[in-house]
Amino acid sequence: MLVGYNVLSNLKIYISRGVLGHLKMLEMEANNLELKQQELRQRGRQEELNANLQALLSKRDQLKAEIKANTSLQKMRTLLDQTGVPYERNEDVDNLEDGSDNSQLLLMMARHTQLKDLLHAHHLIGGYDVLQTRKGKGVCVSLATAYEGVYLETYNLEIDLGSNLRICRHNIPPFIPLERLVTQGNMQTDIRDFLDTLSQYLNAYAGRKQQLHLTKEIHSSVQVAESNALCTILVLMFTIPGEKAEAALCTLQYADHTQRLPTRVNIESEDTALVSSPQWKKNQALLLETPLHTALVTMKKTGSIA
């Protein structure tokens, strides 16, 4: 009995020591794993800090390069502005160029910024081309006209920049009331308003003239019986389809010389019932609201004219 008891006790001690040893081993492995994880976290943090450092250094170098480029660009732009001829080469600008791609790019950028500033100034003064004349004592203003996206005539007037603004020379058509516009627009205090009003007159005249040109070009059956130089009165002869092929006389009056559409349309014919019909009432309204050549296309499609 005593022998069995000793054996059992030794077995329990062995098992107890084995379990404790295993637990101790697991504890050591857990501690080692924690140390490895700490090392990995520290290494990852260090790599993240290194990456941030490299990004900051790269940003610093980029900012230095931009500052250097902007300094060179400003210097080149200043020289371009001082020449007075922005797109022609000059000795000072050539000295900044070393033939490299960077110098060529800087020159292009300087000219680009100069062009943007010129366009901005052009926009501020209402889109008029302005050139100095007589060594700054005067300016020449160019007013371009256009209709339906097509540029037409350009008119010019030279203004003396003395104590009082005065128009020296111009090629404005004589039927444009230039002197009255100078007085009404008060050119001395608001030249922008004067130029805007003058531009309205010129563009309206160019638009009416272009409509008349397109009418003659597109509608061969429509005869222009009468028109004045300002194109404020137009008399057209229509041929009305039918057995008798009657004619109708259409008079367009443009009382507002700043507009391209007529203010009054009168249609006459021997057949009074025809011109007073609903269809011709529509044609009359169409001519008041639509450019002449476009209205005639519609009238031809509806069969009102041949």
From TrEMBL:
The lineage of its organism: Eukaryota, Metazoa, Chordata, Craniata, Vertebrata. It is found in: Chromosome, Centromere; Nucleus. GO terms for cellular component: Mis6-Sim4 complex; nucleus. InterPro entries: CENP-O. Keywords: Centromere, Chromosome, Coiled coil, Nucleus. CDD domains: DRWD-N_CENP-O. The keyword Cell membrane does not apply. Belongs to the CENP-O/MCM21 family. Residues 23-66 form a coiled coil. This is Centromere protein O. Its main location: nucleus.
